[in-house]
Design brief:
202 residues; alpha/beta; four-stranded parallel sheet; 9 helices
């Protein structure tokens, strides 16, 4: 990749596969922003994944649980922790790689106007057989203590309405521009023929 920053839309991706791809690019020096982490998918039925997460919540320190391990409930922090587990984050190179990652719930302001990319090798549509059961990360997070699911869904619905209106305006502008180019081409047809004879146009 090696662009200034790569924005990845996490919707429809499998959590572990996307984390592996992102971790590899981070170690190579690429800055990555992952948006819409609440739409990540985990393979398996919802109940099974909920039970597994409950077992994870039971892992704690006997003497002083405040010292860790810390169990993040928010989808973007679950993804961040998954990537951290795939990096040597206690070494200098791993710590620097982790600093190059940003993960967000929803699609916040600076990144909503930038081009978003997908990782084909991590898309559930390509990796799973049709009919396989999957769990959406926002549903799992909402069950284990994340309190902002409804707010994020409301803001996403509002953002999509604004984005759709912008897309319609852009489509109309492109249509007008194409029509203007066509009109100009008809008006300067004679000049183009003259330029072709001289050799300026091929």
């Amino acid at each position: 990749m090696f662009e200034k920053v790569v924005v990845v839309d996490a919707k429809g991706h499998l959590l572990g596969r996307l984390a592996a791809a992102v971790a590899k690019e981070l170690l190579c020096g690429q800055k990555i922003v992952v948006v819409r982490c609440e739409e990540l998918l985990i393979t398996g039925r919802f109940l099974r994944n909920k039970i597994k997460f409950k077992h994870f919540l039971n892992k704690r320190r006997n003497t002083n649980p405040k010292r860790g391990p810390f169990h993040y409930r928010a989808p973007h922090m679950i993804f961040w922790r998954t990537v951290r587990g795939m990096l040597p984050h206690k070494l200098v190179k791993g710590a620097h790689a982790l600093e190059r990652l940003q993960s967000f719930v929803g699609l916040p302001a600076p990144w909503d106007s930038m081009k978003r990319q997908v990782v084909p090798s991590a898309l559930a549509a390509f990796r799973l057989k049709p009919g396989r059961k999957v769990t959406v990360l926002k549903d799992l997070s909402g069950e284990v203590g994340w309190k902002h699911k409804d707010i994020v869904e409301k803001l996403e619905a509002k953002r999509k309405v604004v984005a759709q209106a912008w897309f319609k305006r852009q489509k109309a502008l492109y249509k007008l521009r194409d029509q203007a180019v066509k009109n100009v081409q008809e008006n300067i047809k004679g000049q183009n023929e003259t330029l072709k004879k001289v050799g300026y146009l091929v």
